[in-house]
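COURSE: Structural Biology Practicum
ASSIGNMENT: Worksheet 4, Part C
STUDENT ID: 0417
INSTRUCTIONS: Below are two proteins. For each, the amino acid sequence is given first, followed by its structure token string. Answer the questions at the end about the second protein only.

PROTEIN I
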Amino acid sequence: MVDKKGVIVRFYRFKNRLKEKTAGLAPGAATISADALAEAEQALSKMSEDYPDWVQGLIVKLQEQHGRSVDTPEKRREFMEEISRIAHDMKGQGGTFGYPLITDFADSLYSLTQGRKEVSDNLVELVKSHVDAMRAVIRGRVSGDGGEIGKKLTQTLNEAIDKYSE
């Protein structure tokens, strides 16, 4: 084919391999075998059991970055970038494994630290408040909404946010 400027244009049609893999399945008609579903549920259950131990490692990393930002104020911005990255990773996982408070607290921490050019003493205090709240959730194995404990942790964190917000 030739376009308006006389340039030869070629169109390529690539095979839709995904369509081939789902051939014969009407939308909504796909089924998963009971065995495969049970196996997936068992794997998720196992991962949920391991989640508190795994996420504790991330909380320790957050705590280390916070400590570095206290000890080395001239490098706070790079420490906050790492804190933001860790919080971003954490916010997508807590709810999946039965700890939505971790997701909520990590989302809040990410919002506070993401893309910050200036890192004040107040922001450093807010990071500490978030890390302390997450540590309390995992140490107490506060799953789900946490009931009264979850409400108290959320309230305490919100009070810190109100106090230290700029």
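PROTEIN II
(use this one for the questions)
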Amino acid sequence: MTTSTRSTLAAEATTTHRPGVPWATVVPVAVVIAYADGFWVTSMRGAVGAVGRGQGPFTTWWHQSTVLVPLYVCAVIGALALALRWSRRGGGARAGLLATGGLVVLAATLVAVVVMAAGAAYDYHVQSGELQMMATMRGDCRVDCLERLRQDTMWLQVRATGLGAGLLLLTNLGVVAWFAMLCGGRLDAARRGRPRARVHGAAVRRAPYAVSPLRRLRTTPVAAGAEVRLLLAATLVGGALIHVAVVPEHLDEWPAAGAFFIVLTALQAGAAAVLLRGPRRGVLLLVLAVSAGPVAVWVWSRVWGLPLGPEPGVPEPVGLPDCAAGVLELAAVVLAVVLLRRGAELARRPRLSDHVGRLVVTAVLAVTVIGLAATQEGWFDLVQASDAAGSTMTSR
């Protein structure tokens, strides 16, 4: 190739930048906000929550804050993705900073308020049971008295949640403003990726030694189908991890249930490993079976109760680990159906944007971490409160 030809091609080439996730912004902001919001969530629970859930506030604070960090990472990435889209419409640097910071504050506050509201709802459930138990023990509080106490308890939780939402909003405003000041008055919504040269009308042939194998691998375009397949494998691995964590307790309750979860874990992990080699139809059908089947069994056991086992026909209680595993399995069903029906089309489409891809992967990670943490006693006081309530009802 002559020098003039190279110059012409270089003039026709356009350099594009692919916006990526600014992890230097996402991770520190998410971690600080998670622990700051966790302080108020734990404080409100200790002030107006059920007695059994207020024990060990410091341990509860750092346990739950650590578990919820991936959820806050999702919130920050989503806020930055919206800020990046809006910034393309124009606006000055100050407007971009306010928009980015405001979206991060709103997204993080929404996550914290949902967590606080869920805790308040469970607190009200536990406190209603305690009021019922106290009424039966004393006998001087009749139906109208019991109903009034329940209404007062409910409004106490509602007011506490409203007050907590205001405190969370102010705290997140302070954290984001503090971080922006540390960054010199900036809050980047995206980092600039490596430049990619596009040549119109001709292709530049480079010598094999011009690009290293590692760099060639990193610059190889990834189709959307490959990303969906990787996401499907991640959901299968997440469900398998949650299932293997609950094997010991199921072996103690009913050995057949423990064996079922062992086989299910092996099938999900094996399907994820084989799926990484290619989206074969047989593998996708196996994914549908090992994902939809456990969801159907779970719904039957929670609504009507299994016909076999230690307590046949008795519905089992709904727990946080099985809900997390169910969410991952439902996501696996949807992704497997998408690959079965539109796999060839997705193989020709370009990859998703960096924000969307990281957001979805982090969401899968967040559900997996929350489900795993709920299987370990002491990481979520919700489990301890449920056990305490169950033991109280059993003693009665």
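ANSWER KEY EXCERPT:
Q1: Residues 1-17, 193-221, 382-396 have pLDDT under 50 and may be disordered.
Q2: Residues 93-138 form the longest helix (46 residues).
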